[in-house]
Amino acid sequence: MKRSTAVPVAAVLSALALTLTSCAGSNDQSAPSEGDYVSGGTFVTAVGDDPGDLNPLKAVSPDTFAVVSLAYESLIAVTDEGDLVPWLAESWEETGTEVVFTLKDGITCTDGSEFTAQTVADNLNYNADPANATFSYGSVIDETISATADGNVVTVTSTENNPFLAVNVGTIMLVCDAGLADPTTLSDATDGTGLFGLSDVKPGDTYTFTKRDDYTWGPDDVTSETVGLPDTIQARVVTDESTAANLLVSGEINAATISGADRARLDGAGLTHSGVRNPVGMILFNEKEGRPFSDPLVREALSIAIDRDEVGTVIADGEALESVSLVTKNPLLCVADGPKWELPDTDLDRAAELLDEAGWTVGSDGTRTKDGQPLTIKFVYNAPTSTHAAAAELVKETWDELGVTTELFANDAAAWSEQLWSTFDWDTGWVQVAPGGPVVLSTFFDGATPDQGGLNFMWVDNPEYSALAAEASSASPEETCGIWQDAEAELINRFDVFPVTDNILPTYQSGAVFEQPNFIQPTSIRMLG
User: Fold this and answer.
1) 468 close to 483: Cβ distance less than 8 angstroms
2) Are 472 and 327 in contact (CB under 8 A)?
């Protein structure tokens, strides 16, 4: 698949870094049964920022995805465990170059119009056109893919072998005919097949969705009459975590993602949570020519200097999980049999030797220099993430011991955009991507660089990885995952990425339960009595 995109790539990074894989969690309480469910009422979920433009074809921020996913659906649904189940499609058959979807009967849009196989084909062809610059273009679909409709059957064809064709196109959010004909109308309204449709908007405050009474095609046979569904869903903008935690305890809201110190009191209050695996300790490197980390010796040296146990405990807030894959978002393609890599042990002495070998020698003042210039590293991290600063300080202390000058930058969204995608004036830091499969991962590590409109903001040029990615793309479905895992090992072995640790990012539940494969699945919400 062609690896390029015209989507605003800074926002894409943000979305991929925060849309993460589900990993169920709770506080050891008994799961509620259907007898505990009470139909009706309003389910309130907190979002950290205003979602802005609601066009799902252009959505890039996690808060936008969290809101628009309440109204739009796809051919295939993904479960918490990463399994694929029917949604708008009742079945599908796949080869490496073709997938045939058969739609369920009676699907309609929230405005009452018919949703047909032709609507699906038009959506996929729209996403496959580079001129439309959708979020999906360049990662899960491109101009090598086309779709046709015949009755209630959609046939999707790829001119190249594509072992993940069904899941890639099958999980794209689909828009109804009117919205697709004029996507500008989608900026402040929704036009989908969802169980809930947008009914009221108060920008910066609340986005309200109302349940339809004619919905019959949900996953696991969910309909408008399923017991426990709310009458309305409200996405409420709550920018402060402590405020969100207070609202959870009081029962004023039903769901909020809490990553900081407030977790302890929520656990103490007996609230359950749906968890997502979060590559919180992933370190990426700016390998652009002229930057210190363009030298693999420097990448290796400063990686193996880090005490992963100490730093991981801090950044994961005491709940560190060993990374098992660079793929962390559902549907977890090619994760089950991995990894084929091991991270090296911490070795400060070897780190010093590698820096010497790279020409960065220690002077009388204890500072490493090369050609009269100090080894200065600009380390960036996400300012709102409470554990990032403390963990960055630990890394700085270690690198200081090696004679490295480490400058820490606490970034907000604007600073991320400028440093990573405009000035490229950064070197490393707590920078994460969280794709759902190896093909999407490759758009970052084997794709075009930002000056060419691509997602490879690290300027990685790893010939071994690229060769394996090309081989995996043309392999059979039975062989492709093994090759992709070999490719992932090349990224680790060359220190193009260093996954210090993962953790669980929990979305707490109060007065309701739900599934969260990546975002809250609206058809899974059940209100509790």
Assistant:
1) yes
2) no
Q: Which residue has the tokens 């960055």?
A: 392
> Which residue's entry shows tokens 């490393």?
428
Residues of the chain with pLDDT under 50: 1-29
Q: How far apart are CA 374 and CA 356, in angstroms?
A: 13
**Structural contact between residues 88 and 120, judged by C-beta atoms closer than 8 angstroms:** yes
Dist. CA 371–CA 359, nearest whole Å: 9
In order, the DSSP letters of 431-478 are: -----SSHHHHHHHHSS--GGGT-S-TT----HHHHHHHHHHHTS-HH
The Cα–Cα gap between 375 and 513 comes to 51
SS3 204: coil
Q: What is the structure's pLDDT at 31? A: 66
Give yes or no for a cis peptide into 339 (omega within 30° of 0).
yes
Pairing, β 153-158 against β 428-430: unpaired
**Partners of 196 in beta bridges:** 211
Eight-class DSSP state of 294 = G
Tell which phi-psi region holds residue 269, choosing left (phi > 0), alpha (psi between -120 and 50) or beta: alpha
Q: Residues 6 or more apart from 33 whose CB is under 8 A from it?
A: none
d(CA 394, CA 314): 9
Angle formed by the axes of helices 477-493 and 438-445, nearest 10°: 40
Position 413 scores a pLDDT of 73
pLDDT digits (tens, 9 = 90+) for 331-356: 888 998 879 999 999 999 999 999 99
The pLDDT score that the predictor gives to residue 30 is 56
Q: Cα angle at 269 between 253 and 43, to 5 degrees?
A: 20
DSSP characters over 22-53? E----SSPPPPPGGGB---SEEEEEESS----
Note the Cα 129 to chain centre separation in Å.
23
Q: What H or E segment, with its residue span, contains residue 284?
A: strand 282-285
What is the distance between the terminal CA atoms of the chain, rounded to a whole angstrom?
A: 49
Residues 266-304 have pLDDT tens digits of 999 999 998 778 899 999 999 999 999 999 999 999 999
